[in-house]
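To the wet lab folks,

You asked to see what we're planning to order before we commit. Fair enough. Below is the target structure as tokens, and below that is the sequence we designed to fit it. If anything looks off to you, flag it before the synthesis order goes out.
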């Protein structure tokens, strides 16, 4: 056993929740952002501003035309897998082999591909790390083992993992349609909490394919956390804190939350308010890329995703036009209500002594 532990340490294989569900999941979200999400944004910009070179096909592969954004989106599987490999500290030959692993697991996982990529990429990466530099023909053995493990698991597990993820996502979305008030609260609070925790809400939403009303509730919850913390900590952190939390991430407050968990009450209650408002009153839906559901106001990706969904719905005929009510609902849920409600709740907490000046200083 001691020899095995020494081997794992030498290979930097750390079997832990932090390594796999925080580091790997967070990296996977970055891979998604740099491929699928950026591709979606590029396509939206090209369509809305009528930019020819962004809307015209630039490549044809197996009879399928790809725009610039389409090429970026098509690389989501490899991007996720390489990002995971990077987070797991893979040596070069393993890291580069993850491109094939990501493509296979994402393709075979179908609509639930991101979750399949997460599981399979982790195992393939650790297998590659274990064999790396253990033979005299490392340049052949390491890629072969990494790719073989990844392809085998993709063929064996990816379809089932993908179906399970989509069923779970479909169940959440069905429940939200059936009970928009209760599920609006639940989805908004849970995804918002995940955004602030050192895990990836974006990757979770992408893995579950969370769109529709449930996606709208997720946007509400994430925005409540980000805008809420940004505004209610303005006295301590000024404009820099407003920007870094409001369009960056509320995860910056995690250290302060550990020191005084009560500072988290106001954003959580705010998300419990804005979530059902999004689902029941404004019927806010995320019909863009599922990863956008878990981004909130980070670079305004959540709002861009909602807008992209509107554009797609109008193009398909599912929606007649983008109305003023649509814009009012999006602004109220994403920015205005969190900026008002969260500081008011925090003021009450300060009056009873649960929160003190300086508790949210970054």
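Sequence we intend to order:
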């Amino acid at each position: 056993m001691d020899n095995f532990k020494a081997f794992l340490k030498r290979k930097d294989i750390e079997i832990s929740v932090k390594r796999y569900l925080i580091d790997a999941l967070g990296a996977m979200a970055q891979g998604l952002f740099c491929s699928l999400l950026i591709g979606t944004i590029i396509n939206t910009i090209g369509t809305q501003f009528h930019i020819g070179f962004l809307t015209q096909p630039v490549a044809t592969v197996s009879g399928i035309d790809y725009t610039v954004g389409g090429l970026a989106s098509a690389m989501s599987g490899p991007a996720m897998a390489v990002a995971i490999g990077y987070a797991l500290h893979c040596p070069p030959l393993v890291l580069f082999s993850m491109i094939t692993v990501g493509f296979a697991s994402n393709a075979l996982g179908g609509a639930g591909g991101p979750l399949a990529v997460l599981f399979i990429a982790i195992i393939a990466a650790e297998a590659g790390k274990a064999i790396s530099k253990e033979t005299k023909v490392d340049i052949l053995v390491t890629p072969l083992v990494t790719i073989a493990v990844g392809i085998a698991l993709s063929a064996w597990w990816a379809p089932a993992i993908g179906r399970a993820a989509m069923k779970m996502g479909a169940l959440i979305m069905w429940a939200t349609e059936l009970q928009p008030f209760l599920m609006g609260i639940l989805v908004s609070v849970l995804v918002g909490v995940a955004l602030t925790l050192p895990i990836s809400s974006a990757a979770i939403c992408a893995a579950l394919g969370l769109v529709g009303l449930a996606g709208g509730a997720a946007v509400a919850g994430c925005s409540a956390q980000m805008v809420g913390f940004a505004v209610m900590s303005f006295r301590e952190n000024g404009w820099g804190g407003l920007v870094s939390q409001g369009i960056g991430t509320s995860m910056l407050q995690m250290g302060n939350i550990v020191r005084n968990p009560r500072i988290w009450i106001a954003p959580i209650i705010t998300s419990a308010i804005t979530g059902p408002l999004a689902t029941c009153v404004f019927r806010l839906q995320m019909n863009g890329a599922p990863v956008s559901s878990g981004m909130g106001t980070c670079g305004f990706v959540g709002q861009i995703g909602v807008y992209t969904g509107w554009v797609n719905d109008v193009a398909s005929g599912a929606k007649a036009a983008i109305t003023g009510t649509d814009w009012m609902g999006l602004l109220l849920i994403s920015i205005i209500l969190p900026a008002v409600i969260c500081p008011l709740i925090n003021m009450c907490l300060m009056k009873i002594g649960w929160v003190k000046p300086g508790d949210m200083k970054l």
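Structural context that might help your review: The chain has two domains: 2-162, 179-351. Residues 17-48 form the longest helix (32 residues).

Thanks,
Computational group
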